[in-house]
Amino acid sequence: MQETGGHNHPTQTLTDLLTIYCEKHRLDNLTIGLCGDLKFGRTVHSLVTAMSQYKNIKFVLISPEELKIPEYLKEEVLEKNNIEYVETNSIEDSIAKLDILYMTRVQRERFFNEEDYLRLKDYYILDKEKLVDAKDDLCIMHPLPRVNEISTEVDDDPRAAYFRQVRYGKYIRMALILKLLEIK
Q: CATH no. for residue 49?
């Protein structure tokens, strides 16, 4: 059974869907790279589930062994819906195939010991050098806040959509608040 509650992030998922649609003008026929903490990342879990509803979605799951996506998501969402996916630990080997790169931070609060966190926190740092082979229309997303998993030198790259993603999130959350307050 799919886990719920603390393993999902519904308002961020709506934000992410709007971002993908605004940036790519579609929600199907996409190869999406999810990079970083795929084990504990609620935004990743929710986005995988949401995007599984669209046609011809492929995932590239980029993480160190310790932070791989949970088995229940692979079994109950990806495999159950016949969604193509590949697991890797190399962002460099994957980036040329991606339409979307969704970066996540390694969250200190999810670790039981400081040594594991320190060993994994800088495993992936997206910089200009790693983007050399990326598509010109790659959409780089991040649920923010970032620590250092995206170098600030990427901020000026037109493919960096994470600040636009924040703006879309503001609109989504405003619309939800208006709906909840029954304001038209």
A: 3.40.50.1370
User: Residue 107 half-sphere exposure, CB side, CA atoms within 13 Å?
Assistant: 14
Nearest-5° angle of CA 110, CA 131, CA 60?
Answer: 55
- pLDDT for 159 equals 98
What is the predicted pLDDT for the residue at 111? 66
Helices (H), the chain: 10-24, 42-51, 71-73, 114-120, 162-180
Overall domain count for the chain: 1
Angle between helix 42-51 and 10-24 (nearest 10): 60
pLDDT value at position 7?
A: 67
Domain that holds residue 103: 5-180
Quick one: which of 87, 99, 160 has its CA closest to 127?
Answer: 160
Low-confidence residues of the chain: pLDDT under 50:
1-5
For tokens 């460099």, name the residue. 92
What's residue 120's pLDDT? 72
